UniProtKB/TrEMBL annotation:
It comes from Chelatococcus asaccharovorans. Gene3D superfamilies: Creatininase (3.40.50.10310). The keyword Transmembrane helix does not apply. This is Creatinine amidohydrolase. It comes from the Bacteria. Its cofactor is Zn(2+).
Length: 252
């Protein structure tokens, strides 16, 4: 049986829901420099979701919702980007989780694949767990996988330092591994790094300036170190760690 909810009939979903976990993944459709497609976050999020759910499919009842391709991406304007306001994104998430509860799911996990959505998934989980009386988990994919990711990259590509970054070494490596035909390495943008004092401050506090927040090039770091093998190892580590979290979430 497919792990994707959209592939199943209403009876099949209804049979899984009471004891199952619904995974609601959200991502973004936003500029990723001149070398990566707008759907990069959606593609990575979909790959992780499918991989993790397939690992668990024989162990526990689990279904993946269609991956939401939009998020809070205003900070990527004026480049081509589709964005939801924060209040709109939270409203959409609440409606979708409410729908899953009406389907009979008592456990919903919101998996995020775009940094701009991180606060929204936590607010949604906190509010709806109380309102709906169900258990809701929420995490950006890199959070539970952080230690494993760092160990994997230190072994395979220590030059990749920013994770996940934006259209830099990490995301480019992952896309080279899972969708190489969409990567245009000959179009990479050069990056002007922040002044040291600005970077040091950003490591300690959240700062949002007017306009875009990823620099003049629209990327977080230069992708010259991108490597397909490192990307494959990294994304496999993420899949395994996300699967471990979902397994514990189901048991808890």
């Amino acid at each position: 049986m497919s792990i994707w909810m959209g592939d199943l009939t209403r009876e099949e979903v209804a049979a899984i829901a009471p004891e199952g976990v619904a995974v609601l993944t959200i991502s973004a459709t936003e500029q990723h420099g001149d070398h990566l497609p707008l759907h990069t976050d959606w593609r990575i999020g979909s790959h992780i979701t499918e991989g993790a759910c397939r690992l668990l499919a024989t162990e526990l009842p689990i279904l993946a919702c269609p991956v939401l391709p939009y998020g809070n991406s205003h900070h990527h304007f004026p480049w081509p980007t589709l964005s939801l306001r924060s209040e709109t994104l939270i409203a959409v998430l609440k409606d979708l989780v409410d729908s899953l509860a009406r389907c009979g799911f008592r456990k919903v996990f919101i998996l995020n694949a775009h940094g701009g959505n991180d606060e929204a998934i936590r607010i949604t989980a906190r509010d709806l767990a109380r309102e709906l009386g169900i258990t809701i988990g929420a995490a950006s994919y890199w959070t539970p996988a952080w230690n494993r990711l760092r160990e994997t990259l230190d072994r395979t590509a220590p030059q990749i330092t920013r994770v996940p970054g934006h259209a830099g070494d990490f995301e480019t490596s992952v896309m080279l591994a899972i969708e190489p035909e969409r990567v245009r390495m000959n179009r990479r943008s050069s990056v002007r790094e922040d002044a040291p004092q600005h970077q040091e401050l950003r490591n300690r506090v959240f700062i949002q300036r007017p306009g875009n927040s990823v620099g003049l090039a629209g990327v977080s770091d230069d992708s010259r170190h991108a490597d397909a093998e490192a990307g494959a190892a990294a994304i496999e580590a993420v899949i395994e760690e996300v699967a471990a979290v979902l397994r514990s979430f189901h048991r808890g």
